[in-house]
Each structure stands twice: as structure tokens, then as C-alpha cells.
Amino acid sequence: MSTHPSAVPVRAMLVLGTRPEAIKLAPVARAMTTGTQFEPIVVTTGQHREMLHQMLGLLGVDVRVALDVMRSRQQLSELTARLVGELGEVMRQQRPDLVVVQGDTTTALTGALAAFYEKIPVAHVEAGLRTGVLDNPFPEELNRCLIGRIARWHFAPTRRAARHLTDEGVPAEQVFTTGNTVIDNLLWVLAEGSGTSAFRSGAKRILVTLHRRENQGERMRGMGRALGRLAERGDVEIVLPLHKSPAVRESLLPELEGRAGISLIEPLDYLDFAATLAECDLVLTDSGGIQEEAPSLSKPALVLRTTTERPEAVEAGAARLIGTDPDVIVGAATTLLDDPAEYRRMARAGNPFGDGQAATRVLAQLAEDFAADVPVTVAAPRPYSTA
Ligand code: UD1
Ligand code: UDP
After folding, report:
1. What is the average per-residue pLDDT within 196-225?
2. Which ligand is nearest to the CA of 250?
3. 296 lines ligand 2 (CB under 6 A)
4. What is its EC number (predicted)?
5. How close is the Cα of 23 to the center of ligand 1, in Å?
6. Residue partners of 129: CB distance under 8 A and separation at least 6
7. Does the global pTM surpass 0.85?
8. Which of 18, 38, 108, 230 can bridge 101 by disulfide, Cβ–Cβ 3.0-4.6 Å?
9. Which residues, 6 or more positions from 307, have their beta carbon under 8 angstroms from its beta carbon?
10. Does the pLDDT at position 46 exceed 60?
């Protein structure tokens, strides 16, 4: 690949397919529209359907190519195979100068892999997150490790994430600590928008989201029973926007449908979700993105998982990793509802995930490298360490 002529915009293909990818790539897409250095080419895979469409308005740029790969109860292997094939074809047609992927989804992995096959360099946003347990979260930990072997630019949200990459042998000059673009988006939306909170009463407000594959089934049913017990206190309002996944709904609905104090609602668009988060007292979640957003709004977060790739919030004291045992969930939530000192301690811990300028840093680095008089190639300038 040759050097890039500076008068010609860099054609940057943003590949996204799920709700969190749209949210976290939106600041990058919006920033690309403010100058002439980049031409954003947005490709949606349709890994998610309704939950992705809800978020596309955030991008500030039209979708160039919309694939339609989602199938009900899709299996990872068939989704992966379909996506590599279809994305490869799109890349051959569009011939972008680089492909940008975000995070650790099947869309992100296949976007990176198809780009590698087409010899197009890859930029990875939210690089370097690790739990250190290859099958937890499943399959995301493996996905992000694999993308880490493919990417040419690694945009790590924190110094710890950057260190994971250099420890794995990624050349330090290809790793950039930027903050997480989710904070850019949250601050932008709170400044721009006027969403409507889903809470209705003056009771103590608990916002819950659950969707992880490794929690679906009996574990998630147990979490549902824990929420039922919390609602029985009578002084709480629990709002739970249900993920569209049938496996999630089958786990939670039998435990929670029709219970007083619990509102089971459809996924909220981002404006309304941000308003709901801003109004809640406490967050219970297995989501990645919400672990990052809650501390920005001074909301204590209980993480209903056995591992987290975001230990920064736990170490700062803004989040607690409490696992999936129903008794522990009820106990930890009860402490925060009833102990103002403990509540204040968590709420004041602060946000370790960025200052809202992550997308600007990503684009500045890409612009610098494409303008420099050196070829931007797929492979690292020196080989990965084999030591
Ligand atoms: C995926 C990501 C996960 C991310 C999550 C965000 C992978 C491997 N996992 O989870 O990292 O945290 O998205 O939400 O990529 N569905 C609909 N409508 C929608 C969205 C999904 O009906 O708008 C259905 C799908 O048909 C599917 C199920 O929900 O059967 C789960 O969707 P899928 O993309 O497979 O989600 P996860 O892998 O659970
Ligand atoms: N979110 C939303 N509406 C909802 C639930 C979540 O906009 O009803 C947003 C939330 O603010 C966060 C993102 O979706 O930015 C998280 O997505 P999800 O939990 O599906 O995926 P993860 O972050 O775990 O990959």
C-alpha cells in the first residue's frame, strides 16, 4: 500500500452491527464529518436489528451499506461465517483505506478478519480490555484477543488496557491511550438531548439490564428471583429494559412478569436511556457499556458477573463485582439502598474511563499516520515478539 495523498480524504469504513458499537463509534463518525480529512463509510451488518436501528441517528452520517444478517436465535458459528463472506464482498466493492471496528462483538471480529483478508489496515477502538479468562465473557474475550492480533492501530481506553496489549507483544508505537468513546457520546447526548426517564414513582430507583450469553438460563432466572425479592421491599421501583434476545426474555419473563414494583420495558433509545440512568439511584447490570457510563453520572453499579474487563471502576470504588448468586445480589443492593455512607462512598468515586475527547484523539492519530510520509500497511512495522 502506498502513502496517502494529503488532498484526498482518507476513506474510513466503520463496521458496526450491535447497539453498543453504534453508541461507541458514533463520536468517531460525527468527528469525521466535521472536517475534510476523512470520508466515513458506514457499514451496518444487522447483527442486531431493532436495537441497532434505534441508535443509527447518533452517527450523524448516512449508512452506506446495510447488510441484513440477523436471524432469530443465531448461532455464533453461522453468524461469523455469514459476516466474513458478506463483509469481504463489501470491502472489495468499496476499497476503503482503513477499516474501523469497536470492541469485541462478532461484527467487530469479522470486520477485522475480512479487512485482513482484503489487505486493508484495521483500527481497533476500545482495544486491550481483558478479563484473562478466555471463555468469560463468552465469546467476547476471545474476540478482542483475536482483533488485537490483527489491528494496525490499537486505541485503548485506559493505561491498563494499553499495557495488556504491549504485554502481549503489540509494538508500543501502535498503542494509543485515548479514553473510551462511550464517555464522549454520553456527554454529547446529555448536552444535546432531552430524553425522558422511564421511572414513574418517587420510590428508590433501580435500573437493571441483563443480557450476557454466559448468564442466560438458570443463572439469569436466579437474578430474576433476586430482583423479585428486592421489589417485595415495597419502597423500590425497578426498571428493566429487556434485551431483544429471546434467550434473555425466556430467562426473565417467567420470574418477573406482572410483579408490583418492576417495569419490564422495551429497549430504550439512547436519549431516554441516558435520562433514565441520570435519574436512577442504583444500577444492577451485566453490561459492559453501562459499567462505564454509571460512574460518569455518579451512580453506584453492581456488576452481576463473575469477571469484568473493566476493573478500573471496581478499583476506583464506583462499581462492585458481585457475581450472580441471588442472596449476594439482594444483600449488596440492600446495603446500598439502606446505608447512605456506603452509597455516598460509591457515588463519589468518579469516572476512570475518559474525558469525552477519545474520538478526537483517535482521528488525530489516524490523520497523522495517513499524512506521514510512510506507508500505512496491514502488518506491524516490526514483528510481534515471540519471546
Ligand atoms: C451481542 C454481543 C455482545 C454485546 C451484545 C450487546 C457478540 C458475540 N456478542 O450479544 O458482546 O454485549 O450484543 O447487546 O457479538 N435480537 C433481536 N433483535 C435485536 C437484537 C438481537 O431479535 O435488535 C436477537 C437475535 O436474533 C439473537 C439474540 O437477540 O438471537 C442475541 O443477539 P446477538 O447479537 O447474538 O447478541 P449476543 O451475542 O447475546
Ligand atoms: N442502552 C440503551 N438502551 C437500553 C439499554 C442500554 O441505549 O435500553 C445503552 C447503554 O447506555 C450502553 C449500551 O446500550 O451504552 C450497552 O449495550 P449492551 O448492554 O447491549 O452491550 P454491552 O455494553 O454489554 O456490550
Report:
1. 96
2. 1
3. no
4. 5.1.3.14
5. 15
6. 104, 144, 157, 161, 164, 309, 310
7. yes
8. 108
9. 131, 132, 133, 136, 137, 321
10. yes
